[in-house]
Amino acid sequence: MRMAADEGIVPVFFLSDSTGISAETMGNALLIQFPQLHFERRLIPFIVTAAEARRVVAVLDAAADGPVTPIAFTTAATDEIRHILNTTRCPMIDFFELHMSRVEEVFGVAAKRHVAKLHGVGDIQRYNSRMAAIEYSIEHDDGQSIRALDRADVVLVAPSRCGKTPTTMYLALQHGLFVANYPLVEEDLDAAELPRPVRALREKCVGILADAKRLSEVRQARRPNSRYASVEQCRFELRQAEAMYHANRIPVINSTTRSVEEMSTLIIQILETRTKDRS
Predict the structure, then answer these.
(1) Residue 179 and residue 122: Cα distance in Å, rounded?
(2) What structural domains and CATH numbers belong to the chain?
(3) pTM for the whole thing?
């Protein structure tokens, strides 16, 4: 008997003849409206031949035979690839099929439907800025480097495993933001002051908290039965971190029930508010 979506993990596929960034962005914009569901996401980019498209259909059909109904989002542009992908038994949201005919109608001309044009020359400046943001964020992940910290658009500060890294990378990839994140270790939490490397960047900092029980579960997967993963240690670190954020008037986001997309949206709203306050 097939399970309902709210009883199991929903397989989600993002398909593209290019990088898949647009399929992920548009698909996730829809998925975020279903916080009660849990998703297992898979990106399949660069589907540029009929053979590759047929292999993807086999993967989708296998998922469709599983216990939970899957869903796929595609931004494949060429008719041949699109037609093959749409032979799958997996429910498919085809962004080109849904909207292209209306765009052609508005412009009064037929689209060329070129492969891999979604991030073409017209978007090169944005693409390059995002690549620079990703490089910066990788270098400054988890406090690995303090070089050029002042270039950061935002600095995420949090105890270990509160969701700093995935949020950092999403902000860099999707929004081109230079993001550093800094882990609060136990010796940092003995004082109300921010750690020295980020002390002068208070106005760029955003603090992250989480539920102690949930944080303990995440840490158990990394270091089972350790003091680091105990609920007591998690409660201590979160309590001290919250006091630090309050003492330094740092905005706080709780990551427990929020997706990376939601976290990123809230952070962008914080940055926009800061910009307005300064103007």
Answers:
(1) 25
(2) 7-119 (3.40.50), 122-278 (3.40.50)
(3) 0.62
